[in-house]
Specification:
Helix 1 crosses helix 15, helix 4 packs parallel to helix 5 and helix 5 packs across helix 6. This protein is an alpha/beta fold and 394 residues long. It starts with a strand and ends with a helix.
Amino acid sequence: MTTGEILYLAFYWPPIGNPQSYRAWNLARGLAQRGWKVHLFASHTWTYRHRDFRPKVECPKNLFVHRIPSLSLPVPTRVRKWLTPPGEADAEWTWRGPVRDAVEKILVECKRPILFSSSYPYTSHMAALEVKRRNAVPWTSEFRDPWTRPFEGARGTGNERRMEEAVFRTADRIIVVSEEMKRALFGERMTWDEKCVVLPGGFDETEFTNLLPAELPGPPPRLLFSGTVYYSFLPALRTLASVWKETGGSLIFLGSERRPLRKTGILKRKGVFLLPRMSVERARGYEAASDYLLIVVPPKGQFVLTAKFASYLRHRKPIVLLSPRNGTLQRILDGGRYPHLLLPLEEPKAWGRLLERWLSRSQETVPEEFVRSFCWPEIVRRLENVFKGLQEGG
């Protein structure tokens, strides 16, 4: 007997291999494993180069994936956003009508249904808003990114604010990935704080348990950065390379693009290495072989808890954090007493002194309870409690 049925408007789903798809996969699979019947609605978008085919072999029997194509427009997405009519949320607005109709078709046969929409795209919320108004089904909306307030000073258009207000007012529960995200979304309008739940990104302990052995280049201590290097990171990384050189250790970039690093001359410096793109299993092995892991948080991106953060926690390694002071990750790491070094972007001249002092101290013990709170099973359990509360009328 199922606990209930969830109508999950995710938009992204494997084989697309981005963080939103990864989150949808873990939440949907976890809920299905806990006895829920999950109907997941995804689009036919196939434009991502990273692919993830796990659901083909691991999809639970009570997880049903419905591929809903958008209305056909003979223009690419980057052009379609300029054609977005007033009252529509974003460039994926042609998906709203088809997915709304698909959800309502299945809804009539559901027992104890819960509507669950996730953004980006915000079109998912607008489709769910219509379903909620027409069918009075309990609805939880999830925000992985801010809508009209992506960073301080941005406010969005009047249409966007009205859509955002309608979602906040109508949804029975609102899920965000961090406290900073909640403040970014609501601002001074904390009317909806009582129905807001914080559920961060997570990692799965059962994934990559048999890591491929890896030997990193260069002398220790080895600081590793995994993923994309954006041009906005380059000034901070150039300073870090100079500071880390004084330790006699190695700064290693894993799977990063060569062009931005080469443009700044970082790769010509002694002790700096670039490893090519590789399988996720092998990349996790290199992360596990490092001494420290590096996260860069640009000023305009500090609201979002990156998937990399949860992935790094899996290894229980000390973290070097290039971030503005009092950013999301700093607050979370401080609160959990997780071993880390903050190199504030506002004070690059102090990095050498801070790094020398930090490396000279004995490293703190990794708090296991804090790490476990970012495991997907724990996050799914908390999400399930939200849904059960809605079923009980709470």
